Amino acid sequence: MDHRETTLKRNVIFTGKIITVRKDDALLPNGRPCTREVVEHPGGASVVLVLSGRIALVRQFRYAYGEELLEIPAGKLERGEDPMLAAMRELEEETGYAAGKMEPLFTVYPTPGYCDEKIYIYRALDVSTGRRHPDEDEFLDVTMVPLEEAYAMVERGEIRDSKTIIALQFLRLQGAV
């Protein structure tokens, strides 16, 4: 059976600096009409940086949750921006490290039920010291956490950011210590 739904009409409800919200008219695979609410997001790029058995994590306040989270370095893509270049930029801005190369690991779809955001996850290679320069509205601390401790923090529920959990589990499956 073909599970695709057909968009009849896109109805933009809100256009902001980061997201656009739509309430579309569509058809289900069985031909019945339905409404689909969609949040359009340009996506993000994130970076796994491991040096001497320690992973770079940033602690920052996330307004939507009202709390600080520990995450791998990441940032929003500009529309049409190359995710790898964005990952390189975010790594240096947030941590002060520069990557000579980026290895693409995978792409995750964090909220497929209502949002089209994709997060591209890379591994930083050929790392050198750069210059940390966070955006003017970005307040964060960088910490280098031993991988074993980061894995334990996931198990204890101390790391709750999905892209970071996925990246750490990927490293663990690969046997990274």
Write the layout of secondary structure elements.
Blueprint: E1 6-9, E2 12-15, E3 20-27, E4 33-40, E5 44-48, E6 50-51, E7 54-62, E8 67-71, E9 74-76, H1 83-95, E10 97-108, E11 119-129, E12 140-146, H2 147-155, H3 162-173
Helix pairs in contact: 2-3
Describe the structure.
The chain is an alpha+beta fold and 177 residues long. The protein folds into 2 domains: 6-40, no CATH class; 44-104 and 122-173, Nucleoside Triphosphate Pyrophosphohydrolase. It contains 3 helices and 12 strands; from the N terminus they run βββββββββαβββαα. The chain has helices at residues 83-95, 147-155, 162-173; strands spanning 6-9, 12-15, 20-27, 33-40, 44-48, 50-51, 54-62, 67-71, 74-76, 97-108, 119-129, 140-146. The strands form 3 sheets. Strands 1, 2, 3 and 4 form a 4-stranded antiparallel β-sheet that branches. The protein has a 4-stranded mixed β-sheet with strand order 9-5-11-10, with helices on one face. The longest helix has 13 residues, at 83-95. The chain is elongated and about 55 Å long.
